[in-house]
Design goal:
227 residues, alpha/beta, Rossmann fold, Arc Repressor Mutant, subunit A, 2 domains, 12 strands, globular
């Protein structure tokens, strides 16, 4: 199966460059030159991952991402000339899975797309794994990649889902920031940043008004899922 990647950017040179490298890697590519076109394609549900520029006509990347997260948790990478931490945190807070600042190496972009696709679509594919994970009133269906609280579905992004799954697989176990990052993002943890804190904070808010009800911060050590 060839995954379909949406490249939404108002710069034709960037779309052409990414199309060249992505098609060489076996992907199908859909293009959008503004946010309106991007949303029209995403609304059809025929895209497996989206690359969204922030500064686009008609609708910026943040608005497209916010609308997308109301109905879908497909992987999303923000592409932006904005490289401030506040812009990155905003993108992650709205539900982005990754953030790549311009100018970028197209080979790095493809490598990170491969990583996001592999992590998201291989979930539930490991042989012999549990199909259901249950901790207190939370139930995680590893085949459908859906989480339920008291049998009501909880809308999560792919990163939030992977975070929760990691903790639910071993409730009571303390994970360091390095272990969380390497398990969820699939990359070596090199420097401390706000990604983990922002994503865990957002996940906690979706699970309970009490921030420590399910995922507890163990000062100086990391995070733990309460049994």
């Amino acid at each position: 199966m060839a995954y379909r990647i949406l490249v939404a950017d108002d710069e034709k040179e960037i779309r052409d460059l990414l199309r060249l490298y992505l098609e060489k890697d076996g992907y199908q590519v859909a293009e959008a030159s503004d946010g309106g076109e991007a949303w029209a394609l995403l609304e059809k549900g025929e895209v497996d991952m989206a690359l969204l520029d922030i500064m686009m006509p008609r609708m910026d990347g943040y608005k497209v991402l916010k609308k997308l997260r109301e109905t879908s948790n497909i992987p999303v990478m923000i592409l932006s000339a904005k490289n401030q931490d506040t812009d990155k945190i905003l993108g992650l807070d709205l539900g982005a899975d990754d953030y790549l600042a311009k100018p970028f190496n197209p080979m790095e972009a493809v490598a990170r797309i491969n990583s996001n696709i592999r992590r998201f679509y291989s979930l539930g594919a490991r042989s012999g794994e549990l199909k259901q994970l249950v901790v207190r009133d939370l139930r995680l269906d590893t085949e459908a990649c859906v989480v339920y609280k008291r049998e009501e579905p909880v809308s999560l992004t792919s990163v939030e889902y992977k975070l929760l799954r990691l903790f639910m697989e071993h409730p009571g176990k303390v994970y360091t920031k390095q272990q969380v990052y390497e398990n969820v993002w699939g990359e070596e943890y090199a420097i401390a940043d706000n990604n983990i804190m922002v994503c865990i904070s957002r996940l906690r808010a979706k699970l309970s008004e009490d921030s420590g009800a399910y995922i507890k911060t163990i000062r100086g050590l990391g995070y733990r899922m309460e049994k």
